[in-house]
Structures are given as structure tokens and as C-alpha cells.
Amino acid sequence: FITHTDPLVREAAIDSLLVTGGERAVGIVAPLLEKEPDVNVIHGALRRLKEIKCAESEKLVAGFLTHPDEDLLVSAIQTCLSLSGDNSDRFSMPNERAKSKPEQDGAIVKCLADPRWRIRAAALEFVAKRRPPSAKAATLSLLEDADPFVRSAAVKAAIALGAKEALPSLRKML
Description:
Layout: H1 7-21, H2 23-35, H3 39-49, H4 55-62, H5 70-83, H6 102-111, H7 117-130, H8 136-141, H9 148-161, H10 167-173
């Protein structure tokens, strides 16, 4: 069923494989998802992969961080955040957090320059929670973004990064 012509059947089959096989199934579905033409099938897999924290899941999801579909790219960023530990505790020190992967960080930092506001906002959410130092300059520039959602997310990310350079921009906002 994982190669069925109907995308809904493929989505259900891949989901079932991931639910029952967990980490062992990631290697089976990875080559299929990499070639999957239907974004809904990939979306379904990304939702399930959030629960399967392993290196193969991280590698597979990282492959979608350059996908042209906006919704899929947002899902891939959110899945990377979940897989990297998604430590929602704003008050923990950076060394207490699970380490994000440099290749994921780089791809997500590139998303900060995406022309679509949802992509920039999702990438800033990742930055705020994972605190990759390489995102500092782009985060500071997004404090001046035209979109209010992006500016709000940039404020959170700049604070999380401890970017004192953000103070002049923050003062202007108030």
C-alpha cells in the first residue's frame, strides 16, 4: 500500500508503518518520502515523525527544509523543533537544552530570509527555542520586518538569543 496510486492510501500506509515500526520504520519510508509527489502524504509523515526521535528522522526531515511548498516547509521547521527537544522552558540555560544540528540550524537560518512571512515566523520560533548563534544577525534585521507577526517573533527570538544589539530597535517599537 505504500506505493499505491491513491495518495490517501499511501498516507495511511506510511502512517501505519511509522506507528507500528517507530524508529525501525523510518529507514523504510525515507526513500519513499524523498520521492513522494503529494505534499499531503509528506505532511502526514512529518506529523508522525515528531514522535520518533532518532537520527534517521532528523535527517529525513532536514531534507524538507528547502521544499518549495509553504505549508510543508513550516511543518518541516516545526518537526525539526520537536525532534531537537523543543524545550519550551524559556528560563533554562542554553547548555541545558538539547543541541540542535548545525545542518538544520543553517537551513532554518536561511529560512529567515524567505519572502513568505509564515516561513520567517516559523524559523524565528525555532530560533527562540533552540537559540542557534548563527541566527543573531538575521533575527536583528527582522525586528524591522513589514509583517507584525514576524516582528513579534523576532522580539522573542532576539530576547532568547540575549541580543543586546536589539535594544535600539525595541525602544523604537515602544
